[in-house]
Amino acid sequence: MVAELHGVMEEVRERTFELVSHLDEAQLTTVLAPIMSPLSWDLGHVAAYEDLWLNHRAAGRELLRDDLAALYDAFETPRKVRGDLEFLRGAELLEYMAAVRQRALEAPVGDGDLHELVIRHELQHTETMLQAMTLAGILPPSFGGPASVSGTGLEFVDVAEGAFEMGAGPSGFAYDNERPRHGEWTDRFSIGRTPITNATWLAFAEGGGYERREWWSDEGWAWKQQYDITHHATAEAGDPDAPVVHVSWFEADAFARAHEARLPTEVEWEKAATWDQLEGVGEVWEWTVSYFTGYPGFIAYPYREYSEVFFGDHYRVLRGGSCATHPRVASLQFRNWDLPERRQLFAGVRIAR
Length: 353
Prior knowledge:
By secondary structure, the chain is of the alpha+beta class. 36% of the residues lie in helices and 10% in strands.
């Protein structure tokens, strides 16, 4: 197991560097979008997290750079201030990342959970970095976006009522918000066989989707008006048969209302996703109507800031993964979450009735 985990760590780091290999130092260190971190901050944060969990917590060693602890603490330094910080850059950043990794390869593995936590943390940050690159129009040349699907998103499959075991089981790695596995029940419902495609989204937009007030929630309409959201450029430029991407929850909700449908609950989503009838799972994150909360019996692990501080009625749950999500992260039980106005996510929509 030790050799396997170390091998994965190296593969993930190579992938991380490959994703930014086309960028110059200015692109790495500038704020690409107000809601995102400079890419070099993300790289330093990935290394500092590894140093904290593998070298300090698992191996009991002092942090390699104690002076960087607050700088790379995501709660001490929110995104809006990171561009003004003296984060590591250039050769100093690469040297720090290499030194942390060298020590981490000597850390005890134990059951492997902390190593898996560090691996998946880096993979999640690379997706966040791809979001920033999307907003700046500097995606890697090799990044292709969602693949086409054989449907419009308006074809439905029926799911029978009944009990369902939801969440991750007790063995293997899982995030705290995926546990405990527990019983749920759904009434009969229908869900889209595929995510909504760009062509279908354009038909919605051309049919008054951004003008018909009755299709929007009060919050969604206020957001649309405040930011003058009148169309969806990504849908206009994308493959007509590929899932629409970079859709906010507000837009997804309005689209569903326009089609006398709704967004699925995350219970419905997970139940349906275990069936073979659904296509396109993993091409775009799929918004659900559910707020991000803990399952019955939730226990924070290994720190409450991963999940618990986000619980409540602000964040909506997304499911399924995306074309920017590494398969190691995108299990059917994985729960993503974000604010309903966010468009930088590789998120689309699958509707339900």
